[in-house]
Amino acid sequence: MLEDLDNLMEIEEIDSLMVSGNAFDNPDVYWLTGFRSPDNILCLHNRGEETIVATAFKTLERLEKESFIEKTFDLTELYQSFMERGERATDNPEKVMDAVLKENFDGEVIGVPRRFPSDLLIAIQNLGCEVKPVPDLLLQARATKSEEEIKMIEKAGEATICALSNVIELIKNTGIGANDVLLSDGEPLTVRDVKQALNHNLLDMTAEAAEDSIVAVGQMGYDWHYLGAPDDKIKANVPIIMDVFPRLKIERYVADVTRTVVKGTPSDKVREMFYAVMEAGDAVLDEMTAGANIDDVNMACYNTLKEHGFGSSRLNPGAKEGMTHSLGHGIGLEVHEYPSMYVRDGEFKEGHVVAIEPGVYLMNEGGVRIENDFVVTKDKPKRTTMGLEEILYL
User: In whole angstroms, what is the distance from residue 142 CA to residue 154 CA?
Assistant: First the structure.
């Protein structure tokens, strides 16, 4: 949360944190300002003080109306002087930095995050300021969510479940043609059709695909990040993995949900995979609480799958079948955030929001994955993606 920023800066021994970019290219900017704009701005957070945003012209006017920033630094006069010479601000990074720092910085060390323009970094150094890379500081601060952020993630989850529900209904209402290909209005149903339906439904909920969606049919689902080729046919009697991770168009927060369905009759092995994955997910929820060791939660999943006869790359690093990816990841303004569940020495904190995605993948069957999003609390985790419970076959 924003409230954690100053403490993290003190730990890193930096006096100020500088962030540059816009809300669409750099989520750190939106998180620091609440300013949804394609225009680049410069943010300076001096430890213990309010964040200052430096910008110019109409961008400054909109910032003052639309963001939660109360302190601004007007660069209009400086930018105007550049324009009179036929230049741009990007041609003069050192002059911009000099103006901003001379009026707004009296410390010694400026921290810069992973996403930071190299020309601005060099300009700061040329002005004699000490620069310290703090690549993970903002990710650490963003890892715990405020109540308002959690509401936005819940809203994204509602949009995702609604879109998936409608697409599952589309699949349910298909016929079965030659070679088990599903038919919609007499035509083969393809991955392109399913993704278009997902996208249309998301737009109706003021959301959009953050990157793409995964629609993997049958044995193609063995590769757990296979996106699905547009012309892939949706087929009966095999698992169809649909992994959807959209972003709210206005609020910018994401959800991440996966459902696996079969139109027709799943094989006995796919049924075994499905129920093993369901039980692994339940075992995770029994362990995931504030203060819990992340790897203990991971092991609850992998050990449950082992009890059902399915291996994992965690218990057997050379495994090519079973669960061959990590259990989950943090979500927020991006699909993959902190906390990382790949680590073995971290612990969950109250306010973490994580996507939990147990899965089993077999070469001859494909994959089964079920993914939901949860808020970590002092007690049982709070699920934010409600609906479509225990659906396997249609």
Answer: 17
pLDDT cut 70: percent of the chain above it: 99
- Residue 344's pLDDT band, with cuts at 50, 70 and 90, is confident
Neighbouring CB atoms inside 10 A of 40's CB total: 17
User: Percentage of the chain surpassing pLDDT 90?
Assistant: 96
- Of 116, 114, 105, the closest CA to residue 136 belongs to 114
Q: How much is the pTM?
A: 0.95
Tens digits of per-residue pLDDT, 219-267? 999 999 999 999 999 999 999 999 999 999 999 999 999 999 999 999 9
The CATH homologous superfamily to which domain 147-383 belongs is Creatinase/methionine aminopeptidase superfamily (3.90.230.10)
CATH (residue range 2-143): 3.40.350.10
